[in-house]
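Marked as duplicate of an earlier ticket. Keeping the data here for the record.
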Amino acid sequence: MKVSNSSMKKFVCLCLPMVLVVSGLILLTTHHNIFMYIYKSQLVLSPTSGSFPMWQDLPTPMLLSMYLFNVSNPDEVSKGAKPELEEFGPYVFTEQHHKTKLAWNENGTITYRQIRTWHFVPELSSGSLDDNVTIVNSVAATIGAMINQNVAKSLRFFPNVFLRAIKESLFVTKTVREIIFDGYHDPLFDNVEELIKLLPWVKKMIPEGSVMDKFAFFYGRNGTDYTDGVFNMFTGAGRTDQMGEVHSWNYSTRGLFPGQCGQVRGGAGEFYPPGLEKTYIEMFSNDLCRTLRLNFNKEVTVKGINSYEYRADRSFFANGTENTLNACYEPAGVFLPSGVYNTSICRFGAPVFVSQPHFFQADPYYLDMIASGLSPNSTLHSTYFRVEPRAGVPTDVSARFQLNVLVDRVSGITMLNSVNKTYFPVMWFENKAGVPDSLAFKMKLLANLPEILQGMGWAQIGLSLAICIIATLVMASKRKVQGRLEDTSPILNQSIQEDSQDENVFLDQE
């Protein structure tokens, strides 16, 4: 049976709009499901997911910029003067992360260790790793704090004689490489055993594992897999609302602090659950042994990708009076003005306090201790995370923190007998990371996928309506033409007949 062209055209005009409307409605009603299907197949972590290679090894290394505070007047500070500081740097390093010793677990988590590797980038740095910097000696400050807390004044004669004999000093001048990674040797390390023999009760003051052959703030961390600990993280399999959340650290769901502060929770930093809200995000920091909360600030655009910006505001390191959520991070009976966090509990008791650089957003109490060299600035010293909210992928990160060592007067100890209590800035660092240019288009496409699908759905419905309207107009036009032909056909027939009669007349005359 042969189908005419006109029948085929009618069939197409009837069926094509129906197909477009149905497919358009499907896209409009299932765009979220389509997005989640792609999300689960590509971002939910598995050995075959598209995100796995980028999670195991950063596609582009982060940049770590370090700044050191040189003490210009160490002798005067030892006699009670305020420190005069001079900022050296930045000393810039690339920072690569590699996940190793992976174990996929049946409860939707993955257990792993992390190797962080740093390489110096001289062309981006202002200075050399061989620059000499005078800083407060963290070893001396730590032993002073231990003596102050554990040794009665009447018994401090012997520790003081010992420290003077080994020429322990409150300030040291070392190279940048020694201060950050390579480490420097302190005479106390050679004589700890002699001190314990002389004063056996000193042994209980020294935490196990705290004595090393050298000291540096990042000593033994470059290229090792043990310093960051063992992470257990939700992969998002089964429950995407737990995507990237840390389940346990060092095989425990509890940290070092009491109450809610001791809960191991928050993201590991690479992923967040899809569908973020304009409230806050949390991140677990193994360096600080705690969870950090950043509050929503505003919407921004990063390389064309809509992102939510979460910032470390004044509540970030506020004390328990100003921010009750931070109360359980404070040692019992110790009150500090807002702006610093006591990390001594996870630093073998060392009096190390973390703040934002230059005491940004901290109580003026801390700045008043410093004579010169600090100038807090929101642009230079604030911390923020920018995250694409639909997929929960960070697009731009700038984390900035400062390490401070508490130096306090200890009567009976010569090197600390005259100093004033000071939270001494030693160094601050900035970690920067963002979505690579090579992945920006894919990220933008994924972030806008639901809108793209919705747009396609509406376009198909619109196209079907256009086809129907055009088909209706064409059919109406054809009918109008046919009607005109029917109206004019009798006149044409009469004219033909008259012409025929005239011809016959001429034939008859001949």
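See parent ticket for discussion. Confidence is low (pLDDT under 50) at residues 502-510.
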